Automatic annotation (TrEMBL):
InterPro entries, alphabetized: AAA+_ATPase, ABC_transporter-like_ATP-bd, ABC_transporter-like_CS, ABC_transpr_LolD-like, P-loop_NTPase
UniProt keyword terms in alphabetical order: ATP-binding, Nucleotide-binding
Keyword match ATP-binding: yes
Name of this protein: ABC transporter ATP-binding protein
Provenance organism: Streptomyces bullii
């Protein structure tokens, strides 16, 4: 990578859910425009790490720095502004709003940001087309295939022009063809727009789309290639 300055950096994160430790001193850096895969066994802390990095969950110890700001020092208001304007999130089951069409799902974040409905819908249509969801704009999520719905969810995450997209097992519920289509669309668009991606996956084929991979074990990042 040409730019060594991290966009997002976690240092020494610990987090327990009740008495269950999820993170035990995890440190990781994401550079601008980088696609980073975080892999690891079930329960190793991948989702918890993503939630801390995205400012959804506050760690018990350690710090998360985004740009020049330390997330743990920010007010809820500033955090939610960051999440709305700088971050995009995609989960395993796209979590589109079932009552809205694909077009309105993608237009929604723009409208929440103050765009007029017609403008938001026009931009949403462009983004759905970029993600290969053509002719499906008027369908509700339940009427789409898993892969189409997931590509619509990606369009929704990227439509606002975020600097970072957090993708938590975005292909976890898809067959291999749909997974390939989703990952191709995500990585192509992220590279084109210079968006960094933090990709959580336990699937080696999905991780292979990333520029770099780090592995979590028992809540800490271990060098790749170290066996259990
Ligand atoms: N809300 C919660 N309440 C209690 N324990 C939790 C909660 N969320 C996670 N955990 C526990 O914390 C540990 C780490 O979970 P986490 O979901 O971060 O791991 P993961 O690597 O993403 O797992 P998976 O691949 O199965 O999703 C696990 O032992 C899990 O059972």
């Amino acid at each position: 990578m040409s730019n060594p300055v991290p966009l997002l950096a976690a240092r020494g994160l610990t987090k327990a859910h009740g008495r269950t430790p999820a993170l035990r001193g995890a440190s990781v850096e994401l550079r601008p425009g980088e696609i980073l895969a975080v892999t690891g066994a079930s329960g190793s802390g991948k989702s918890t790490l993503l939630h801390c990095l995205a400012g959804i969950v506050r760690p018990d110890e350690g710090s998360v720095t985004y740009g020049g700001e330390r997330l743990e020092e920010l007010s809820e208001k500033r955090l939610s502004e960051l999440r709305r304007t700088e971050f995009g999130v995609v989960f395993q089951f796209g979590q589109l709003i079932p009552e809205l069409t694909a077009l309105d799902n993608v237009a929604l974040p723009l409208m929440l940001g103050g765009a007029a409905r017609a403008e938001a819908r026009a931009r949403a249509a462009e983004w759905l087309e970029r993600f290969g969801v053509r002719g499906q704009e008027g369908l509700r999520p339940g009427e789409m295939s898993g892969g189409q719905a997931q590509r619509a969810a990606l369009a929704r995450a990227l439509v606002t022009g975020p600097k970072v997209v957090f993708a938590d097992e975005p292909t976890g519920a898809l067959d291999s063809l749909a997974s390939e289509q989703v990952m191709t669309a995500l990585t192509h668009t992220a590279r084109e727009s210079g968006t960094a991606v933090l990709l959580i996956t336990h699937d080696a084929q999905t991780a292979a789309y990333a520029d770099r991979e780090v592995q979590l074990r028992d809540g800490a990042v271990v060098p790749l290639g170290v066996s259990a």
